[in-house]
Write a structure and sequence with these properties.
The protein starts with a strand and ends with a strand. Strands 4-9-11-10-6-7-5-8 form an 8-stranded antiparallel beta sheet, with helices on one face. A 3-stranded antiparallel beta sheet has the order 1-3-2. It is elongated, with a radius of gyration of 27 Å. The relative contact order is 0.11. A hairpin with a 3-residue loop joins strand 10 and strand 11. It has 2 domains: 67 residues, Multidrug-efflux Transporter Regulator, Chain: A, Domain 2; 152 residues, Multidrug-efflux Transporter 1 Regulator Bmrr, Chain A. Helix content is 37%, strand content 28%. By secondary structure, it is α+β, with helices and mostly antiparallel strands. GO terms for molecular function: DNA binding; DNA-binding transcription factor activity.
Length: 247
């Protein structure tokens, strides 16, 4: 029995572009009728179902092509073991991603504009630049280019300095030590050990400056103390930030 392209789109709830993609990759071979319409066999339906299943299992097109060329049970077993290792790694990654999200949710759920005694968690910190003064005279953002997607997804935007010294402000990326993997590359990063601090959640300006209301809440005695701050989230015109003052 033969089926039209419209039938295939209906069977699999896919777009015409997706169907053509599998054809261009050499994975489907429809018959072209005299009317220039494409016709697909039951075998084509079966094959596309298998491809869609493998795609759902996170197989790339190259993986699919390699898989359908497997010629022995031993080679199939090797392929599945490699995929098993990949799934284990993904499981670990999503566990850490879930922990990271839970941590941010916890911080965001805490009251804003109220100080409390807390602990600065151990953090790896990669400055994007070393000082505001030298911002235009030095290489910047090397940490962005050096991160793969998995690493980027676990980082937080961080800045540090002293309120009384705006020129001391330094921006960069940070990683909670508890969330990084064993193979995490911390070279060229600063390490901030866990330590006592005063912490407060504030809504600051989009340009990272503090509002008059922010400054009124912070005791002037803290203006000369080193702080570290992590962005918890962002609205249309405000940044939601957790500050740790080292006192």
């Amino acid at each position: 029995m033969s089926y039209t392209a419209k039938d295939m789109l209906k069977f699999f709830d896919i777009t015409k572009e997706t169907l053509r993609f599998y054809e261009k990759e050499g994975l489907l071979h429809p018959t072209i009728g005299s009317n220039n319409y494409r016709y697909y066999s039951d075998w084509d339906v079966f094959q596309l179902a298998e491809y869609r299943r493998l795609r759902a299992l996170d197989y790339s097109i190259k993986d699919i092509k390699d898989t359908i060329e497997i010629d022995t049970k031993e080679n199939l077993l090797c392929t599945l073991k490699r995929k098993q290792q990949y799934y284990y790694a993904q499981k670990d990654f999503y566990n850490r991603l879930s922990q990271h999200c839970s941590m941010i949710v916890k911080y965001l759920s805490e009251p804003f504009n109220k100080f409390k005694k807390s602990r600065l968690p151990a953090i790896f910190y990669f400055p994007a630049f070393t000082s505001i003064k030298e911002f235009f005279n030095e290489p910047k953002y090397a940490n962005f280019a050096s991160m793969d997607n998995e690493t980027f997804s676990l980082c937080d935007f961080m800045f540090s300095g002293k309120i009384a010294e705006p020129e001391s402000l330094i921006g960069g990326t940070a990683f909670f030590e508890s969330l990084v993997s064993n193979g995490f590359n911390s070279s060229n990063m600063q390490f901030l050990p866990e330590q006592d601090a005063l912490t407060i959640n504030l809504e600051i300006c989009d340009d990272f400056s503090l509002t008059k209301d922010n400054l009124a809440i912070i005791p002037s005695v803290l203006f000369h103390d080193q702080f570290y701050a992590i962005q918890l989230g962002k609205t249309a015109n405000k940044r939601l930030v957790k500050f740790w003052f080292l006192v």
